[in-house]
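Memo to structure team: turn this sequence into C-alpha coordinates by end of day. - J.P.
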Amino acid sequence: MKKLEVFGAAKLKGQIRISGSKNASLPILAATLLSNKKISLTNLPKVKDIETMITLLKSLGSSIDENKKILTVNNNKQIKTFAAYNLVKTMRAGILVLGPLLAKFGKAKVSLPGGCAIGTRPVDIHLQALSKLGVKYKIIQGYVYADAPKGLVGASINFPKISVGATENLIIASCLAKGKTILSNCAIEPEIKDLVNFLIKLGCDIKWLTKRRIEINGVNYLSEIKYHVMPDRIEAGTYLIAAALTEGNLKIIGIDPKIISTEINILKKMGAKIVKKKNEILIQGSKKIKSINVKTSPYPGFPTDLQAQIMVLLCKANKKSYIREEIFENRFMHVAELNRMGAKISINGNKASINGNIKFEAAELMATDLRASVSLILAALASNGRSIINRIYHLDRGYENIEKKLKKVGAKIRRVN
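Reply from structure team:
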Protein backbone atom coordinates (compact mmCIF):
# COMPACT_ATOMS: atom_id res chain seq x y z
CA MET A 1 0.00 0.00 0.00
CA LYS A 2 1.45 3.36 -1.02
CA LYS A 3 1.93 6.16 1.50
CA LEU A 4 3.06 9.76 1.37
CA GLU A 5 6.08 10.94 3.31
CA VAL A 6 5.92 14.69 4.02
CA PHE A 7 8.54 16.86 5.73
CA GLY A 8 7.25 20.15 7.13
CA ALA A 9 8.46 23.73 7.57
CA ALA A 10 9.04 24.73 3.90
CA LYS A 11 7.61 27.98 2.48
CA LEU A 12 6.04 27.18 -0.87
CA LYS A 13 7.34 29.39 -3.69
CA GLY A 14 6.81 29.24 -7.45
CA GLN A 15 4.08 28.47 -9.96
CA ILE A 16 1.34 25.81 -10.06
CA ARG A 17 -0.82 25.12 -13.11
CA ILE A 18 -4.37 24.01 -12.31
CA SER A 19 -5.68 20.80 -13.94
CA GLY A 20 -9.10 20.27 -15.49
CA SER A 21 -12.07 20.03 -13.13
CA LYS A 22 -12.94 16.56 -11.85
CA ASN A 23 -16.42 17.71 -10.79
CA ALA A 24 -17.15 19.15 -14.26
CA SER A 25 -15.62 16.25 -16.21
CA LEU A 26 -17.72 13.53 -14.52
CA PRO A 27 -21.21 14.81 -15.52
CA ILE A 28 -19.90 15.79 -18.98
CA LEU A 29 -18.58 12.24 -19.49
CA ALA A 30 -21.95 10.82 -18.34
CA ALA A 31 -23.77 13.19 -20.73
CA THR A 32 -21.83 11.82 -23.74
CA LEU A 33 -24.22 8.83 -23.52
CA LEU A 34 -26.96 11.05 -25.02
CA SER A 35 -25.22 11.16 -28.41
CA ASN A 36 -24.34 8.71 -31.20
CA LYS A 37 -21.87 11.23 -32.65
CA LYS A 38 -18.15 11.58 -31.95
CA ILE A 39 -17.34 13.80 -28.94
CA SER A 40 -13.79 14.98 -28.24
CA LEU A 41 -12.90 16.26 -24.77
CA THR A 42 -9.76 18.13 -23.71
CA ASN A 43 -8.47 19.17 -20.26
CA LEU A 44 -9.78 16.09 -18.44
CA PRO A 45 -7.72 15.63 -15.26
CA LYS A 46 -5.68 12.43 -14.84
CA VAL A 47 -7.32 11.26 -11.61
CA LYS A 48 -8.84 7.97 -10.45
CA ASP A 49 -12.49 9.12 -10.53
CA ILE A 50 -12.15 10.01 -14.22
CA GLU A 51 -10.54 6.61 -14.95
CA THR A 52 -13.46 4.95 -13.12
CA MET A 53 -16.06 6.91 -15.14
CA ILE A 54 -14.26 6.01 -18.40
CA THR A 55 -14.26 2.33 -17.37
CA LEU A 56 -17.98 2.62 -16.56
CA LEU A 57 -18.72 4.11 -20.00
CA LYS A 58 -16.69 1.35 -21.68
CA SER A 59 -18.67 -1.27 -19.71
CA LEU A 60 -21.86 0.28 -21.13
CA GLY A 61 -20.48 -0.08 -24.67
CA SER A 62 -18.93 3.35 -25.35
CA SER A 63 -15.94 3.29 -27.68
CA ILE A 64 -13.26 5.50 -26.09
CA ASP A 65 -9.98 6.52 -27.61
CA GLU A 66 -7.46 8.21 -25.32
CA ASN A 67 -4.35 9.96 -26.48
CA LYS A 68 -2.26 12.33 -24.34
CA LYS A 69 -4.41 15.44 -24.62
CA ILE A 70 -7.75 14.40 -26.20
CA LEU A 71 -10.32 11.81 -25.17
CA THR A 72 -12.78 10.80 -27.91
CA VAL A 73 -16.08 9.11 -27.07
CA ASN A 74 -18.19 7.34 -29.67
CA ASN A 75 -21.54 5.70 -28.86
CA ASN A 76 -22.47 4.45 -32.34
CA LYS A 77 -22.47 0.80 -31.19
CA GLN A 78 -25.03 -1.00 -29.02
CA ILE A 79 -25.10 0.61 -25.55
CA LYS A 80 -26.02 -1.45 -22.48
CA THR A 81 -28.23 0.01 -19.76
CA PHE A 82 -26.69 -1.76 -16.74
CA ALA A 83 -24.16 0.06 -14.49
CA ALA A 84 -22.61 -2.48 -12.12
CA TYR A 85 -21.85 -1.98 -8.43
CA ASN A 86 -18.13 -2.73 -8.78
CA LEU A 87 -17.79 0.38 -11.01
CA VAL A 88 -20.13 2.74 -9.16
CA LYS A 89 -19.09 1.82 -5.60
CA THR A 90 -16.04 4.12 -5.43
CA MET A 91 -17.68 7.39 -6.56
CA ARG A 92 -21.08 8.97 -6.19
CA ALA A 93 -20.91 10.38 -9.75
CA GLY A 94 -21.75 6.90 -11.07
CA ILE A 95 -25.43 7.69 -10.53
CA LEU A 96 -25.13 10.36 -13.27
CA VAL A 97 -25.44 7.71 -16.00
CA LEU A 98 -29.04 7.11 -14.87
CA GLY A 99 -30.44 10.29 -16.51
CA PRO A 100 -28.88 9.86 -19.96
CA LEU A 101 -29.65 6.10 -20.13
CA LEU A 102 -33.33 6.76 -19.33
CA ALA A 103 -33.46 9.67 -21.80
CA LYS A 104 -31.97 7.63 -24.64
CA PHE A 105 -33.24 4.10 -24.02
CA GLY A 106 -36.17 4.50 -21.62
CA LYS A 107 -34.68 2.05 -19.11
CA ALA A 108 -31.68 1.58 -16.80
CA LYS A 109 -30.38 -0.59 -13.99
CA VAL A 110 -27.82 1.39 -11.99
CA SER A 111 -26.14 0.55 -8.69
CA LEU A 112 -26.64 2.98 -5.82
CA PRO A 113 -23.39 4.99 -5.60
CA GLY A 114 -20.44 4.97 -3.19
CA GLY A 115 -17.63 7.54 -2.83
CA CYS A 116 -16.28 9.23 0.28
CA ALA A 117 -17.83 8.28 3.63
CA ILE A 118 -18.88 11.85 4.42
CA GLY A 119 -22.65 11.52 4.71
CA THR A 120 -25.74 9.73 3.46
CA ARG A 121 -25.99 11.57 0.12
CA PRO A 122 -29.41 10.13 -0.73
CA VAL A 123 -30.39 9.76 -4.38
CA ASP A 124 -34.08 10.15 -3.56
CA ILE A 125 -34.05 13.74 -4.91
CA HIS A 126 -32.78 12.38 -8.28
CA LEU A 127 -35.42 9.61 -8.35
CA GLN A 128 -38.40 11.75 -7.27
CA ALA A 129 -37.51 14.34 -9.92
CA LEU A 130 -37.07 11.68 -12.65
CA SER A 131 -40.46 10.19 -11.72
CA LYS A 132 -42.03 13.57 -12.69
CA LEU A 133 -40.60 13.03 -16.20
CA GLY A 134 -42.46 9.70 -16.38
CA VAL A 135 -39.92 7.32 -14.82
CA LYS A 136 -41.12 4.36 -12.76
CA TYR A 137 -38.49 2.93 -10.43
CA LYS A 138 -37.86 0.49 -7.61
CA ILE A 139 -34.76 -0.25 -5.55
CA ILE A 140 -33.84 -3.92 -5.18
CA GLN A 141 -30.66 -5.19 -3.48
CA GLY A 142 -28.79 -1.90 -3.91
CA TYR A 143 -29.80 -1.34 -7.55
CA VAL A 144 -32.16 1.24 -9.04
CA TYR A 145 -34.39 -0.47 -11.64
CA ALA A 146 -35.92 2.36 -13.66
CA ASP A 147 -37.92 2.58 -16.85
CA ALA A 148 -39.99 5.16 -18.71
CA PRO A 149 -42.73 3.18 -20.52
CA LYS A 150 -43.79 6.19 -22.65
CA GLY A 151 -40.35 7.81 -22.85
CA LEU A 152 -39.41 10.90 -20.84
CA VAL A 153 -41.92 13.73 -20.98
CA GLY A 154 -41.10 17.32 -19.95
CA ALA A 155 -42.48 18.63 -16.66
CA SER A 156 -42.04 21.41 -14.09
CA ILE A 157 -39.82 20.25 -11.25
CA ASN A 158 -38.94 22.17 -8.08
CA PHE A 159 -36.06 20.53 -6.19
CA PRO A 160 -36.91 20.31 -2.45
CA LYS A 161 -33.31 21.28 -1.66
CA ILE A 162 -30.32 22.38 -3.71
CA SER A 163 -28.53 19.27 -4.96
CA VAL A 164 -25.61 19.34 -7.40
CA GLY A 165 -26.01 15.70 -8.51
CA ALA A 166 -29.79 15.85 -8.93
CA THR A 167 -29.52 19.11 -10.91
CA GLU A 168 -26.95 17.49 -13.23
CA ASN A 169 -28.92 14.26 -13.70
CA LEU A 170 -32.16 16.11 -14.50
CA ILE A 171 -30.55 18.61 -16.88
CA ILE A 172 -28.99 15.73 -18.83
CA ALA A 173 -32.19 13.61 -18.83
CA SER A 174 -34.41 16.53 -19.89
CA CYS A 175 -32.37 17.22 -23.03
CA LEU A 176 -34.05 14.32 -24.90
CA ALA A 177 -37.44 14.43 -23.12
CA LYS A 178 -40.54 15.27 -25.17
CA GLY A 179 -41.51 18.92 -24.79
CA LYS A 180 -40.45 21.49 -22.21
CA THR A 181 -38.94 20.95 -18.76
CA ILE A 182 -38.57 23.71 -16.16
CA LEU A 183 -36.15 22.98 -13.29
CA SER A 184 -36.35 25.27 -10.24
CA ASN A 185 -34.14 25.58 -7.14
CA CYS A 186 -31.18 24.29 -9.18
CA ALA A 187 -27.57 24.16 -8.00
CA ILE A 188 -25.53 26.79 -9.88
CA GLU A 189 -21.94 25.62 -9.28
CA PRO A 190 -19.53 26.61 -12.09
CA GLU A 191 -19.28 22.89 -12.95
CA ILE A 192 -23.04 22.85 -13.70
CA LYS A 193 -22.63 25.92 -15.92
CA ASP A 194 -19.83 24.02 -17.70
CA LEU A 195 -22.10 20.98 -18.20
CA VAL A 196 -24.83 23.27 -19.63
CA ASN A 197 -22.30 24.93 -21.98
CA PHE A 198 -21.21 21.46 -23.15
CA LEU A 199 -24.82 20.35 -23.76
CA ILE A 200 -25.69 23.56 -25.67
CA LYS A 201 -22.65 23.02 -27.89
CA LEU A 202 -23.87 19.42 -28.40
CA GLY A 203 -27.15 20.81 -29.76
CA CYS A 204 -29.38 20.80 -26.66
CA ASP A 205 -31.88 23.63 -26.12
CA ILE A 206 -31.21 25.01 -22.62
CA LYS A 207 -31.59 28.49 -21.20
CA TRP A 208 -31.33 30.03 -17.74
CA LEU A 209 -34.57 31.84 -16.87
CA THR A 210 -33.43 33.18 -13.48
CA LYS A 211 -30.49 32.50 -11.16
CA ARG A 212 -31.72 29.02 -10.13
CA ARG A 213 -34.30 28.27 -12.85
CA ILE A 214 -33.63 26.51 -16.16
CA GLU A 215 -35.80 25.83 -19.19
CA ILE A 216 -34.93 22.79 -21.34
CA ASN A 217 -36.70 21.91 -24.60
CA GLY A 218 -36.16 18.33 -25.74
CA VAL A 219 -34.30 17.85 -29.04
CA ASN A 220 -33.96 14.98 -31.55
CA TYR A 221 -30.62 15.86 -33.12
CA LEU A 222 -27.14 16.21 -31.55
CA SER A 223 -23.89 17.36 -33.19
CA GLU A 224 -20.32 16.08 -33.31
CA ILE A 225 -18.26 18.41 -31.08
CA LYS A 226 -14.97 19.19 -29.36
CA TYR A 227 -15.12 20.59 -25.83
CA HIS A 228 -12.52 21.95 -23.38
CA VAL A 229 -13.37 21.24 -19.71
CA MET A 230 -13.06 24.11 -17.18
CA PRO A 231 -10.24 24.21 -14.57
CA ASP A 232 -10.61 22.71 -11.08
CA ARG A 233 -11.57 25.42 -8.58
CA ILE A 234 -11.18 23.06 -5.60
CA GLU A 235 -7.61 22.25 -6.60
CA ALA A 236 -6.92 25.99 -6.99
CA GLY A 237 -8.45 26.71 -3.57
CA THR A 238 -6.34 23.96 -1.99
CA TYR A 239 -3.08 25.45 -3.30
CA LEU A 240 -4.13 28.99 -2.28
CA ILE A 241 -4.67 27.70 1.27
CA ALA A 242 -1.29 25.90 1.14
CA ALA A 243 0.41 29.22 0.30
CA ALA A 244 -1.44 31.07 3.09
CA LEU A 245 -0.51 28.32 5.56
CA THR A 246 3.22 28.18 4.81
CA GLU A 247 3.84 31.96 4.39
CA GLY A 248 4.36 30.97 0.77
CA ASN A 249 4.46 32.97 -2.42
CA LEU A 250 2.63 31.20 -5.25
CA LYS A 251 1.38 32.01 -8.71
CA ILE A 252 -1.67 29.86 -9.49
CA ILE A 253 -2.18 29.74 -13.27
CA GLY A 254 -4.94 28.45 -15.55
CA ILE A 255 -7.87 29.50 -13.32
CA ASP A 256 -10.45 32.29 -13.61
CA PRO A 257 -10.37 34.12 -10.22
CA LYS A 258 -14.10 34.96 -10.58
CA ILE A 259 -15.16 31.36 -9.90
CA ILE A 260 -13.40 31.32 -6.50
CA SER A 261 -14.10 34.88 -5.36
CA THR A 262 -15.69 33.71 -2.06
CA GLU A 263 -12.55 31.74 -1.12
CA ILE A 264 -10.23 34.59 -2.20
CA ASN A 265 -12.19 37.08 -0.04
CA ILE A 266 -11.95 34.80 3.00
CA LEU A 267 -8.19 34.32 2.56
CA LYS A 268 -7.75 38.10 2.20
CA LYS A 269 -9.68 38.64 5.46
CA MET A 270 -7.32 36.13 7.10
CA GLY A 271 -4.31 38.23 6.06
CA ALA A 272 -3.12 36.78 2.72
CA LYS A 273 -2.08 39.26 0.03
CA ILE A 274 -3.80 38.29 -3.23
CA VAL A 275 -3.59 39.81 -6.71
CA LYS A 276 -6.08 38.61 -9.35
CA LYS A 277 -5.21 38.64 -13.04
CA LYS A 278 -7.10 37.33 -16.09
CA ASN A 279 -6.29 33.63 -15.69
CA GLU A 280 -4.01 33.60 -12.69
CA ILE A 281 -3.86 34.43 -8.99
CA LEU A 282 -0.79 35.62 -7.05
CA ILE A 283 -0.85 34.89 -3.32
CA GLN A 284 1.55 35.70 -0.51
CA GLY A 285 0.92 34.18 2.90
CA SER A 286 1.14 36.35 6.03
CA LYS A 287 3.04 35.65 9.28
CA LYS A 288 -0.09 36.63 11.19
CA ILE A 289 -3.23 34.64 10.27
CA LYS A 290 -6.49 36.21 11.46
CA SER A 291 -9.35 34.09 12.78
CA ILE A 292 -12.64 33.99 10.89
CA ASN A 293 -15.92 32.05 11.07
CA VAL A 294 -16.82 29.96 8.01
CA LYS A 295 -20.10 28.34 6.94
CA THR A 296 -20.22 25.91 4.01
CA SER A 297 -23.15 26.39 1.63
CA PRO A 298 -24.10 25.85 -2.02
CA TYR A 299 -22.33 28.02 -4.60
CA PRO A 300 -21.63 30.94 -4.45
CA GLY A 301 -21.05 30.15 -0.76
CA PHE A 302 -17.92 28.58 0.70
CA PRO A 303 -17.54 25.03 -0.73
CA THR A 304 -17.77 21.97 1.50
CA ASP A 305 -14.90 20.53 -0.60
CA LEU A 306 -12.54 23.14 0.92
CA GLN A 307 -13.79 22.87 4.50
CA ALA A 308 -11.08 20.43 5.69
CA GLN A 309 -8.34 22.55 4.08
CA ILE A 310 -9.49 25.88 5.59
CA MET A 311 -9.76 24.17 9.00
CA VAL A 312 -6.00 23.48 8.91
CA LEU A 313 -5.35 27.18 8.24
CA LEU A 314 -7.69 28.21 11.09
CA CYS A 315 -5.57 26.11 13.49
CA LYS A 316 -2.78 28.66 12.88
CA ALA A 317 -5.04 31.73 13.29
CA ASN A 318 -4.55 34.23 16.13
CA LYS A 319 -7.83 33.37 17.92
CA LYS A 320 -10.62 30.80 18.11
CA SER A 321 -12.67 30.24 14.92
CA TYR A 322 -15.80 28.27 14.04
CA ILE A 323 -16.88 26.25 11.00
CA ARG A 324 -20.51 25.28 10.33
CA GLU A 325 -20.81 22.36 7.89
CA GLU A 326 -24.19 22.78 6.17
CA ILE A 327 -23.81 20.30 3.27
CA PHE A 328 -22.71 16.88 4.62
CA GLU A 329 -23.43 15.62 8.13
CA ASN A 330 -20.30 13.51 8.45
CA ARG A 331 -17.59 15.74 7.07
CA PHE A 332 -15.40 16.21 10.15
CA MET A 333 -13.58 12.87 9.93
CA HIS A 334 -10.22 14.65 9.51
CA VAL A 335 -10.58 16.28 12.96
CA ALA A 336 -9.33 13.27 14.95
CA GLU A 337 -6.17 13.09 12.83
CA LEU A 338 -5.54 16.86 13.04
CA ASN A 339 -5.96 16.68 16.84
CA ARG A 340 -3.32 13.91 16.89
CA MET A 341 -0.98 16.47 15.29
CA GLY A 342 -1.61 18.97 18.09
CA ALA A 343 -4.73 20.77 16.84
CA LYS A 344 -7.39 21.71 19.40
CA ILE A 345 -10.66 21.19 17.56
CA SER A 346 -13.96 20.19 19.17
CA ILE A 347 -17.13 19.15 17.36
CA ASN A 348 -20.72 19.78 18.36
CA GLY A 349 -23.15 18.48 15.73
CA ASN A 350 -22.37 20.33 12.50
CA LYS A 351 -20.20 22.96 14.21
CA ALA A 352 -16.43 22.79 14.77
CA SER A 353 -14.65 25.06 17.27
CA ILE A 354 -11.00 25.55 16.32
CA ASN A 355 -8.46 26.98 18.76
CA GLY A 356 -5.80 29.03 17.03
CA ASN A 357 -2.07 29.52 17.63
CA ILE A 358 -1.23 25.82 17.56
CA LYS A 359 1.99 24.18 16.43
CA PHE A 360 1.46 21.08 14.32
CA GLU A 361 3.57 18.05 15.25
CA ALA A 362 4.55 15.50 12.62
CA ALA A 363 2.77 12.12 12.95
CA GLU A 364 1.69 8.95 11.17
CA LEU A 365 -1.77 9.63 9.76
CA MET A 366 -4.72 7.93 8.09
CA ALA A 367 -6.72 9.56 5.27
CA THR A 368 -10.50 8.98 5.50
CA ASP A 369 -11.76 10.68 2.35
CA LEU A 370 -10.59 12.76 -0.62
CA ARG A 371 -10.57 16.26 0.89
CA ALA A 372 -9.56 15.01 4.37
CA SER A 373 -6.45 13.42 2.84
CA VAL A 374 -5.29 16.71 1.32
CA SER A 375 -5.91 18.52 4.63
CA LEU A 376 -3.46 16.10 6.26
CA ILE A 377 -0.82 16.99 3.63
CA LEU A 378 -1.35 20.69 4.42
CA ALA A 379 -1.00 20.09 8.18
CA ALA A 380 2.14 17.99 7.56
CA LEU A 381 3.64 20.82 5.44
CA ALA A 382 3.02 23.24 8.33
CA SER A 383 4.52 20.92 10.99
CA ASN A 384 8.05 20.18 12.16
CA GLY A 385 9.48 16.80 11.19
CA ARG A 386 8.37 13.85 9.09
CA SER A 387 4.75 12.76 8.66
CA ILE A 388 3.48 9.60 6.96
CA ILE A 389 0.01 9.63 5.39
CA ASN A 390 -1.65 6.25 4.81
CA ARG A 391 -4.54 5.31 2.47
CA ILE A 392 -3.65 7.92 -0.15
CA TYR A 393 -5.82 6.21 -2.79
CA HIS A 394 -8.47 8.73 -1.66
CA LEU A 395 -6.14 11.53 -2.75
CA ASP A 396 -5.60 10.01 -6.20
CA ARG A 397 -9.36 10.19 -6.85
CA GLY A 398 -9.27 13.98 -7.15
CA TYR A 399 -5.79 15.53 -7.33
CA GLU A 400 -3.61 15.19 -10.42
CA ASN A 401 0.15 14.89 -9.76
CA ILE A 402 -0.13 16.48 -6.32
CA GLU A 403 3.36 15.43 -5.17
CA LYS A 404 4.97 16.69 -8.40
CA LYS A 405 3.14 20.02 -8.19
CA LEU A 406 4.05 20.52 -4.52
CA LYS A 407 7.67 19.37 -5.05
CA LYS A 408 8.08 21.94 -7.82
CA VAL A 409 7.25 24.75 -5.37
CA GLY A 410 9.56 23.55 -2.60
CA ALA A 411 7.64 20.94 -0.60
CA LYS A 412 9.53 17.89 0.65
CA ILE A 413 7.08 15.17 -0.25
CA ARG A 414 7.33 11.72 -1.84
CA ARG A 415 5.37 8.55 -2.40
CA VAL A 416 6.72 5.45 -0.66
CA ASN A 417 5.72 1.80 -0.63
